[in-house]
Amino acid sequence: METKMNPHNKMEYPPMHTTEHILNQTMIQIFGCERSKNSHIERRKSKCDYILTTAPTPEQMQIVEDKVNEIIRQNLPITVSYTNINEVPECIDLSKLPQDVSQTLRLVSVGNYDICACIGEHINNTSEIGIFKIISYNFEDCKLRVRFKLV
Ligand SMILES: [Zn+2]
After folding, report:
1. How far, in Å, from the CA of 65 to the mean position of ligand 1?
2. Annotated domain spans of the chain
3. CA nearest neighbour of 46 among 95, 10, 74, 76
4. Which of 2, 36, 98, 106 could be bridged to 48 by S-S, CB 3.0 to 4.6 A?
């Protein structure tokens, strides 16, 4: 079995990056959109873009923030497993992976809430995140940009 993994292209702040996983799953559940394919994750503040057909209401964005915090507060473990790329469950979105992806995929789970293929660095438990806060968001040309921080 091929065990060599593709290198990660950048170092991301693990609590923020793990929050990105939770935010992605929350966006899928609330808006039925796809995971963010354009994100910029930094220690102080981050942003993720999502493709939506209509503008979200302030109430919906509040629900997003509340849901992410509800998940964080559950003190969920973040666990890693490995699978062959041909045996990946259908629910896992592989569209963000590079063309030259290795045969072995690293799957990262946030409790039972989210699972996705990722080679980034994560924390061990959502209790390490703190509180998720949406700083601002804007919607233009079907693109929702969410800016957020951890406090
Ligand atoms: Zn990740």
Report:
1. 19
2. 14-150
3. 10
4. 36
Copy the structure tokens of residue 77.
């473990």
Contact between residue 46 and residue 40 where contact means Cβ atoms under 8 Å apart: yes
User: CA-to-CA distance for 110 and 81, rounded, in angstroms?
Assistant: 12
Pick the range with the lowest mean pLDDT from 9-18, 49-58, 70-79, 87-96.
Answer: 87-96
- CA of 52 from ligand 1 middle (Å) equals 22
pLDDT at 126 over 50: yes
What's the token pair of residue 4? 């060599």
Dist. CA 78 → ligand 1 center (Å):
10
The full DSSP string for 49-116 is EEE-SSPPPHHHHHHHHHHHHHHHHTTPBEEEEEEEGGG--TTS--TTS-TT--SEEEEEEETTTEEE
Q: What is the pLDDT of residues 52-62, one digit of tens each?
A: 999 999 999 99
Instruction: Using the mean position of ligand 1's atoms as its centre, give its distance from the Cα of residue 120 in Å.
Output: 5
Domain with residues 14-150, CATH architecture: 2-Layer Sandwich (3.30)
Residues 71 and 61: their CA atoms lie apart, in Å, by 16
Cα of 123 from ligand 1 centre, angstroms? 10
State in Å: Cα 95 to ligand 1 middle: 15
